[in-house]
Amino acid sequence: MLRSVFWLIMAGGLASATTAAGQSRPDTLRHAQWQLLWGSEFNTPGDSSVVADHWRFAYPWGHNLGGYEDQYYSGQQVAVDSAGLLHLRARRRAEPRPYAGRQLHYESALLFSTHRRDSLMSAGCPEGSTGFSFGLFEIRCRLPRKEASSSSFWLFGHPDEVDVFEAGSPPEIIGNNIILWSHPYWRPGPLGADKESSQSFYYWPGPGSITDDFHTFALSWQPDEMVYYFDGIAIRHETRYLPLGCPLDVIANLAMMSWSRDRADTYDIDYIRVYTSRQPAPTPPVTPVGPVVGVGRLPRATVAVLGEAGAEMSWQVQEPPGQRPRLALQQNLNPREFNFLALPVRQRWLTPLVAYHDVNSPRHRIASPDGGRSSLSWTVYDLCGQPVLSGQQLPAAGWELAWPTLAPGAYSLRLRMGTCQVRQTMYVLGRPDEVVFTPEWLAPPTQLPAAAND
């Protein structure tokens, strides 16, 4: 799998979410809009042979993807128990296994769907494609516990990849990703040499570990939008980076990183389901691009057709009984690359507000708690409690806030709307426009002096 080996770790304490009955919820997954098409419930106990009608147990092109992965995939590490759970297991070998010029230290497990292509495939897709074009893809699973384990559920097929989730290093950090490669019909460019991608990250705010319980991860893929779900809550709406509509195969795998020294780990799966929409799918909003001689880079075909839709986050004031009011995130549209948010817990999405130190920071839309009768006043405080920015807005059904000039750091945002007051943790992130490695940085380390004896 084409992974980004970048796991952003946020420093400092991060707010945890609590639950209150009767509170409004963010956008939720509605299964009534979908019809079950294909899947596995894993209700027959046995070895890999009991699921071989739906799955193969290695990639069609091999048993390892290279890079930092240190496992050899085979069906021997796939098993279904009497409770209806499929286990993808990883076991450290007594002796490494030679494979493709490497020494692999683990035997592990993978599921790769064997579904033939469906009728929704877009024009221009490669002959012999297999998998699904559009639909709802859902898994219920318990993530592996070890720090160097990497579990995932993803879709792959020429020329696109969609990661419904990737977990690992540590398991409390979850990522989802979209990778769009060049294509001779839709996106002319050197095949496999250029790509568009957008990756988002999320952290588990508690209670306990995310590996303690089963969770559901899902992706709704339509021609004009993709929506990622965690435990039924939509955590990402994406309208910029979209697959072409060529069939994608379904994959679940347990990788072990090369720095792992753990003896074993397990990725437990309750079910994997694929649904088709009960409504006719809209026409893909893309137009094929004819071959161009000398094209050296992948054009932003998707963005050119759909428009450069900016990042936007919609918030709503919630007042749990006996607790102070909080801002709950309702929608996360077209997040910035490496966006980092808390995951929803118990049907509520309470996460610090995240902005960026530039003009492309997400637009934060806050709904009025009283139907637009009150005005809004806001103040941003630094870590010492000193005000650094403030402003006011007239009564409205909602307000849009942005702080593109605010320096990167941690802040507290105070909102006043009539009799309602809200305090919200806010992080402003910043990245350099260009990274230049100095000669001192690139120089080999100097020999450290030996430690003196006590």
From TrEMBL:
Highest rank taxon of the organism: Bacteria
Keyword terms: Signal
InterPro entries: Beta-glucanase-like (IPR000757), ConA-like_dom_sf (IPR013320), Glycosyl_Hydrlase_16 (IPR050546)
Pfam families registered for this protein in UniProt: Glyco_hydro_16
Domain GH16: 18-280
Signal peptide region: 1-20
Record keyword Signal present: yes
Family, per entry: Belongs to the glycosyl hydrolase 16 family.
Name this polypeptide is given: Family 16 glycosylhydrolase
Organism expressing this protein natively: Hymenobacter segetis
